[in-house]
Design goal:
Elements (H helix, E strand, L loop, with lengths): L2 H62 L7 E8 L5 E5 L7 H4 L4 H4 L15 H15 L3 H17 L4 H12 L19 H13 L10 H19 L2 H9 L7 H16 L8
Antiparallel strand pairs: 1-2
Helix pairs in contact: 1-10, 4-5, 4-10, 5-6, 5-8, 6-10, 8-9, 9-10
């Protein structure tokens, strides 16, 4: 074999090894890239999945807890409309004093529901989970959610509504933007029509319970909840009342969107849904 033949053979062998090495490096880099992407994605996803798993666990414990396990707090006895005291059952057993002190005042003590209907008082952990969900999903500052949640619970119990229903309406109507305004003039968190319900805001301001400004979050929730309660009373059911609140007699899926968000709020916080809504 001549020197030229040997050189050609070695050159072909070198080219083959180089090709195999390049192909191996290419495949390795592809799999390495995939591994990095999966690792980074899991790093972002795992905390959220863990929170969701804990929330599902709390929701199941709340929903499946036997009635005998619920506790009645002595300081949660509130007067009913007829003057006789009505006890309010805790939704979650074994709520410690340290946890209870973290609850907003109006969530801790709520107005009594009609006879035979127990009001569920959320624990501090549930309130924090609810606020975290709203803050994270709707890009609301966590500190700002305290007033919104506190007001929703207080007003909802005054109007004999499920607080999560009120919060769900806010989510669907404005995505928790207090400055939201529709093309037809609806304003605020619950998208109230000021020109139609101006008297309600004025009455609220005259009573010192709010402001005449429909963009004031507290006043908007109060007036919006009042309208929602009136709609439910007029139509006879929550679903029909939601259609009335939207201002339509045709089912366009609005009620189901609100109810779906209400279920998500319950799941995220671990709060039990009212069977009467």
């Amino acid at each position: 074999m001549t020197d030229a033949s040997m050189a050609g053979l070695f050159r072909r062998l070198a080219q083959g090894v180089h090709h195999q090495l390049a192909e191996w490096l290419r495949i390795s880099s592809v799999y390495l890239g995939i591994a990095v992407i999966v690792t980074v994605s899991m790093g972002f996803a795992l905390p959220g999945l863990r929170d969701q798993a804990l929330q599902v666990h709390r929701a199941l414990l709340t929903a499946l807890a036997p009635e005998s396990a619920t506790q009645i707090a002595a300081d949660d006895v509130v007067p009913a409309e007829n003057g006789s005291p009505t006890t309010v059952a805790l939704a979650v057993p074994d709520v410690s004093a340290s946890t209870a002190t973290t609850l907003p005042g109006s969530v801790r003590r709520v107005a009594a529901r009609p006879a035979g209907v127990a009001s569920l008082i959320p624990s501090g952990v549930q309130v924090q989970s609810l606020r975290s969900y709203i803050s994270r999903k709707y890009k609301v500052a966590y500190n700002a959610t305290e007033t919104l949640v506190d007001t929703a619970f207080r007003v909802a119990h005054e109007k004999k509504l499920d607080p999560l229903l009120v919060l769900a309406v806010i989510a669907v109507e404005s995505s928790y933007n207090p400055m939201a305004e529709s093309s037809v003039g609806a304003q605020g968190l619950m998208q109230v029509m000021p020109r139609i319900h101006k008297d309600k805001f004025i009455s609220l301001a005259d009573q010192g319970k709010g402001k005449a400004n429909p963009l004031d979050p507290v006043s908007n929730i109060i007036v919006g909840s009042t309208i929602l309660r009136d709609c439910i009373n007029q139509r006879g059911s929550v679903s029909a009342g939601l259609a009335c609140y939207e201002g339509t007699s045709v089912d366009d899926g609005y009620a189901e969107r609100v109810q779906a968000e209400r279920r998500r709020l319950a799941l995220a916080s671990g709060m039990a849904l009212s069977r009467n809504d």
